[in-house]
Design goal:
2 copies of one chain form a homodimer. The first copy, chain A, has a single domain, classed as Winged helix-like DNA-binding domain superfamily/Winged helix DNA-binding domain (Arc Repressor Mutant, subunit A, Orthogonal Bundle). Chain A is 59% helix and 12% strand. Chain A contains 6 helices and 3 strands, in the order H-H-E-H-H-E-E-H-H. In chain A, a hairpin with a 2-residue loop joins strand 2 and strand 3. In chain A, helix 2 crosses helix 5 and helix 3 crosses helix 6. Chain A starts with a helix and ends in a 13-residue tail after the last helix. The model of chain A has no long low-confidence stretch (mean pLDDT 93). At the A-B interface, helix 1 and helix 5 of A face helix 1 and helix 5 of B. Chain B binds a DNA duplex (30 and 30 nucleotides) through helix 3 and helix 4. Chains A, B: It holds the Pfam family HTH_5.
DNA sequence: ACACCATATACGGTTTTGCATATATATGAT
DNA sequence: ATCATATATATGCAAAACCGTATATGGTGT
């Protein structure tokens, strides 16, 4: 993946917020991101699919839920860039983080998630 | 400047190469970048204007030439991201750096530059 | 089987982006 | 003043990016 492709992936508000939240929490499912960003589910899903296709995220199905994390083979410099951005742009993410925290823990095997 | 705006600026092959070359050489003029990237002058100029408008570059006129450098007030984390990218993507830039080096020194006050 | 929840994809439309080409402006040299 | 060089901008067009809505897929529980 060339660097300009990498940065294309970060060049959208929705995708960047998803990536930074995942960087912070290691792993999040689609419905958590949908809630945290207060966006429609198809919109989130589409962006996550794009990030997966670009090799930036990997997904893991667990029951009904699909969890996304940074792709294990993402180059270190890319992870480093994401972490640097996260460290310096917490304010920009604050509302989304608050929203995540007030949702209560991870989705349970039974019952609804979001 | 929000981070997604910053990354939009890096999300193009031409712009990113300009930025990384400027990160490496501190200051370059339009004709040097035009030669190094082997692109048309209006194309380079347009992208540099965009980066200037976005607050990522600043320009300085010296005679016929306009030199661009990273904007003095660019946040440190942004500079850090650029430097990290440069350090890890030298190969991607190799041809452009070689082209710059073989052009002979900086444009002189007399004579043509490129 | 059916209903429900989570996720993915398809379709159609609007907006944005990038480009090539032509032209304008500014500086310097003769 | 004229010409050459360097840079900037304008125009028109094609391609790409995003979005909302509708619908499809897949898993869970009854």
């Amino acid at each position: 993946m060339t660097p300009d492709h990498f940065y294309k992936s970060l060049a959208d508000d929705t995708r960047l917020r998803c990536l930074l939240l995942i960087t912070q929490y290691q792993e999040l499912c689609v419905c958590e991101l949908t809630e945290a960003l207060n966006e429609t589910q198809p919109k989130i899903s589409r962006h996550l699919a794009q990030l997966r296709k670009n090799g930036i995220l990997s997904d893991r199905r667990q029951g009904q839920w699909v969890f996304y994390q940074l792709h294990p083979e993402l180059p270190n410099w890319s992870k480093h860039v994401l972490q640097t951005t996260l460290d310096n742009q917490i304010l920009w993410l604050k509302n989304n983080i608050d929203q995540l925290e007030t949702m209560g823990g991870r989705p349970q095997r039974t019952g609804s998630c979001c």
